[in-house]
């Protein structure tokens, strides 16, 4: 991909990953993060996260269900955190390679679509 756009990422599908896919390091993550401004990279450069205040517990649980559907559909699964009854944090990393792959940015773009409503 040249400069990734949110539109192009949303249209892509994750590739099955049990290793052997290229790691996207912090430098290579920059253009992806430019396309996905609500996501931030952790200090190690191995995970991206997005947090949102859903307003109430029921809406937070609904979001988790929607994210679970995206994850199952793509067979790429985020770590999901629900704290303080309405705060959801979504972490994405590719466990099989111990870092970021394009799958993480594809799922992030699809989650952004869900959050846009
Ligand atoms: C074959 C299949 O794609 C792999 O087992 C997937 C399942 N979901 C996954 N999700 C995440 N986040 N990382 C993985 O390495 C991973 N592996």
UniProtKB/TrEMBL annotation:
Source species, domain of life: Bacteria
E.C. no: 4.2.1.96
SUPFAM superfamilies: PCD-like
Keywords of the record: Lyase
Gene3D superfamilies: Transcriptional coactivator/pterin dehydratase
Biological processes annotated in GO: tetrahydrobiopterin biosynthetic process
Pfam family for this entry, one: Pterin_4a
Single GO term (MF): 4-alpha-hydroxytetrahydrobiopterin dehydratase activity
InterPro entries in UniProt: PCD_sf (IPR036428), Pterin_deHydtase (IPR001533)
Reactions listed under catalytic activity: (4aS,6R)-4a-hydroxy-L-erythro-5,6,7,8-tetrahydrobiopterin = (6R)-L-erythro-6,7-dihydrobiopterin + H2O
Entry similarity comment: Belongs to the pterin-4-alpha-carbinolamine dehydratase family.
Protein name: 4a-hydroxytetrahydrobiopterin dehydratase
Organism field: Rubripirellula tenax
């Amino acid at each position: 991909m040249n400069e990734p756009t949110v539109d192009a990422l949303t249209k892509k599908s994750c590739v099955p990953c049990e290793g052997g896919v290229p790691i996207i390091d912090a430098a290579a993550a920059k253009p992806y993060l430019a396309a996905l401004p609500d996501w931030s990279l952790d200090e190690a450069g191995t995970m991206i996260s997005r947090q949102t205040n859903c307003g109430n517990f029921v809406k937070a649980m609904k979001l988790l269900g929607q994210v679970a559907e995206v994850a199952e559909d793509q067979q790429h699964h985020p770590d999901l955190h629900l704290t303080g009854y309405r705060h959801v944090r979504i972490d994405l990393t590719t466990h099989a390679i111990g870092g970021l792959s394009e799958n993480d940015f594809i799922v992030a773009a699809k989650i952004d679509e869900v959050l846009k409503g």
